Amino acid sequence: MKNLMSLPVTVLLMAVVSCGGNQSGQTSGLHLDNLDTTVAPGADFYRYACGGWMENNPLGDQYARFGSFDQLAETNTERINGLIEDIASRKGVKGDEAKVGMLYNIAMDSVKLNADGMAPIASYLQRIDAVTDNTGLQQLVAVMMREAFDPYFFVFASVDEKNSTKNLLQIYQSGLTLGNRDYYLSDDENNRNIREKYVGHIGRMFSLAGFDEESAKRASESVMRVETALAGAHFDNLTLRDPYRNYHKMPYR
C-alpha cells in the first residue's frame, strides 16, 4: 500500500527530472514555473506542485478557482469575442457572418435595450399571469421548453450509459436560479446572506417589470418559496456523482 501511495509522487518527480534535463527548447511536458521548489514535497505537496502557478496567477475576485483550463477558456472567449467584434464592425457581410454580426450588435445596443424595457418579455409575463391551475401550468411549461426555457427540469438527448450504441431522451433536474440546492437549504450565515440578497434582486427585477413595491416583494418571496421547494427535491452534488442513483431507464409509454 505504501508503494502504491508513493507512485503519483514518483511519477511527478520523474517528470520534473525529465523536463529539467530537456535542453532542446521544447515546451511540452511539465511547466517547472508552476512548481514551488522552495517547499519540500513531503511537507506540503500541493504547494510544491501548484505554488508557482498560484504565485503567477493570483485569484481574482471574479473567480472561485482559476486553473489552466480556466485560463484556456478565458483566452478562447477573448479570441472569439475579437472575431465577432470584427465581423460586427464590417459592412456588406452576408450569410452566417451577417447573422452573427446582427445578433451581436443587437445585444450590445444598450440604448435600444433600455428603450425597449420589459416589452420583449411582456408576452411571457402575460402567459404566466394567465395560468390558473395545474393543467395550465403544464401547458405553459411545455411551450417554454419548446422555446429553450427549462423552468423545472430540462430534457436532452445523450448516450445510454449502459448501452453506448443507443441514445436516450434524458431528463435532468433544473429550476434553481442559484444553481445548487445548498444555497437554499443550508442554514449557515453565508447562505442565509446569499438568499436574502437574492430575494432583494428578484424584487428589483419585478419592480423594473412594472410591479409596485408591495407586489414586487410578494412576488419575490413567492419565487423563493417555489425554488426552495424545488431544491428540496434536488439531488445534492455528492448524489449526482453516483451513476447508479442517476440511472432510471424507463419506457417512453
UniProtKB/TrEMBL annotation:
GO CC aspect terms: plasma membrane
Peptidase M13 N-terminal domain span: 41-251
Leader sequence segment: 1-20
SUPFAM superfamilies named among the record's database cross-references: Metalloproteases ('zincins'), catalytic domain
Iron-sulfur as UniProt keyword: no
Keyword Nucleotide-binding attributed: no
InterPro entries (UniProt xref): MetalloPept_cat_dom_sf, Peptidase_M13, Peptidase_M13_dom_2, Peptidase_M13_N
Annotated Pfam families: Peptidase_M13_N (PF05649)
Domain of life: Bacteria
GO BP of this protein: protein processing
Alphabetical list of Gene3D superfamilies matching this protein: Collagenase (Catalytic Domain), Neutral endopeptidase , domain2
Protein name: M13 family peptidase
UniProt GO MF annotations: metalloendopeptidase activity
Protein keywords: Signal
